[in-house]
Amino acid sequence: METSAAILARRSVRAFSDQPVSRDLLRSLVETATWAPSASNVQAWRFCVVDDPALVRKLDMVSPGLSGKPPVIAVVLSDREYARAKGGQKAADEFSSLDAAYACENLMLAAADAGLGTCAIKSYNDDAVRSLLNVPDGLQVELLISLGWPDPAKSPRAPKRKPLDEVLRFNGCEAWGAEETSSHTDAAASQADDEGCTASCAEQSRDAIGAEGKARPVQTSLSEAMSASPAPQQKTTQPSAVACETAFHGSLSAAMAASAAAAGAPPHSAEEGTDGLELLAYMVTSAAGLRGEPAIYGPLRLIESSKRVAAQLADSLKTADPARAEALRNLATLIAERQNDCMTDEDSFYTMLSEAAALLAKAL
Fold first, then answer.
1. What is the distance of C-alpha 253 from the center of its chain?
2. Distance between CA 122 and CA 139 in Å, rounded?
3. In CATH, 3-163+181-190 is 3.40.50.300
4. Start and end of every Nitroreductase domain (predicted)?
5. Tens digits of per-residue pLDDT, 35-76?
6. Is 110 helix (H, G, I), strand (E, B) or coil?
7. Which end of the chain is more exposed for a tag (fewer CB within 10 A), N or C?
8. How many CB atoms lie within 10 A of CB 48?
């Protein structure tokens, strides 16, 4: 595949087959990644490729932006201490993350060329990932990349892109005034392509499969994180809103460290507790990560949790109350089919939420 063809064909793949990916192919992808540009040739990038099914499952549980049950998760890190020693403070603070991003793009393009699907994920709980992988101090987790052979039955639609004349200027930037920038804010937000997202990703797509049966892999756009609104002024006799919020997120981080350990604990029986534990991990990591993420991720995380609860209830009621179980299954199916419209068509997404409420009423 030509480089330009791989770039244009890439999609954020969030539905994978269970076909394994060979270690030789994974090594080849990482080797290609290491030929990315690197400031002062420091090469502070590090790659932890997770293909053990049990560990993949645990990482999935603490990464709200990850979906599709990939067989492999590539964890891309940067060694900040090494970067500082070899390239100075700027290398540690800035260049190492940029270099890791270049390497990630190389890896995803190489995967596209091989027919693999990938999706860049920034919506993960850092404390939990570090705990699960025993990440040493000095290494920064930069990105998770889900990787595998795409499910041909679920192909993502091509993401929208701005017209070239809207983003290109020659010999100066004067035409990009504040008025023009603000006029496109809503349009840019409604066209944000997940998955990756600097604030993160996540969640069900349908990927294009090429004429030769190869996936048209992964394209992710990294959208800027949205800052939280400033908290109202508090009386001096009360804890400040910032202090309360800091304490809250600190407790969530502590909870996630515990959740990462609990992910390895066996349920009371072979089936009991597993789904509930996964849902709990998803909800806690979602709550911990929503600060700073795009506003649309709030309803997206809630409706994803609702989908999982509906599916679990439908399964538990299929014998005792078949009619209610069917209504709940229909609810879960509706959400699964349209929840990712939030990335490309917010109106459709919010219409789906209304339809979901109507379906839920039938199960009450």
1. 18
2. 16
3. no
4. 7-59, 70-149
5. 999 999 999 999 999 999 999 999 999 999 898 899 999 999
6. helix
7. C
8. 16
